[in-house]
Design brief:
By secondary structure, the protein is mainly alpha-helical. The chain is 76% helix and 0% strand.
């Protein structure tokens, strides 16, 4: 899988973890997902591979 496709796939999967904030736990998960999406988007914008960001996103999604 190409790097942009990998990042796009991770971003889409992270979007599934954004909730309207019904509970504190869901709000915390949403904030974490949003932060990871931002980091991945920065990687795309800068055309830089950051294995740490990818690893954090993959770990979050497990």
């Amino acid at each position: 899988m190409s790097y942009p496709l990998l990042l796009g796939s991770l971003i889409l999967r992270l979007c599934d973890h954004i909730y309207p904030g019904e509970t504190d736990e869901q709000m915390a998960e949403s904030i974490q997902a949003i932060c990871l999406i931002k980091e991945l988007a920065e990687c795309l914008k800068n055309k830089k591979i950051d294995p740490d960001v990818i690893a954090k996103a993959e770990h979050f999604l497990k």
